[in-house]
Amino acid sequence: MSNAMALVNYLTARHYPVSEVLDSLIKVNAIERDKALNGNPTQNAPEIEKQKFYLITTYNPSNPDIKSIVKKHWQQFGRVKSTRKLLDAEIIFGHRNCPNIQDKIVRAKIPTNGQTKKKKQKACNRKGTCRYCPKMSHSGTITNIQNGRKYRTMVKTNCQSSNLVFLAIYVACNM
User: Fold this and answer.
1) Residue 148: other Cβ atoms inside 10 A
2) Looking at residue 48, what is its pLDDT?
3) 120 against 17, higher pLDDT
4) What pTM, to 2 d.p., does this model score?
5) Closest C-alpha to 167, from 158, 155, 149
6) Do 72 and 35 form a contact (C-beta atoms < 8 A)?
7) What is the spatial distance between Cα 175 and Cα 171, in angstroms, rounded to a whole number?
8) What is the per-residue pLDDT for 145?
9) Mean pLDDT of all residues belonging to the chain
């Protein structure tokens, strides 16, 4: 019963409807163990001999050859009554791609009409009289004279720009 509750916790943590999960647990608990393991012979099961059995794994070159292992031990399915019909089924082996970082990352904003909108930069209101615009570097880099480090900056800036990099050096203590 502890495994059943662990499965219930697993499914509810993934936002499955709690009522449906608990209803299914009650239905499963009502089935006798022998019938659950051996299957019900009165059920009209589809012909497995005509079906294909798919074995799909994630590809990894360091994994052993799954195909040879399964074919070597395939006859063991004949020992259990419920899996005996699988012996005649056709086995189809396949590999899926390994997940990569691109599969896991999603953009926060989706551009409209395939284009991104750029914000218009506000112009300086005090042209000619502004004390800050003439002191701003428009070269694209700022160099710290103490350690020689260079910092990349925006080129088209003014006193109304946002996300600026400031480099302040105190002349009195040279810091």
Assistant:
1) 7
2) 47
3) 17
4) 0.30
5) 149
6) no
7) 7
8) 77
9) 77
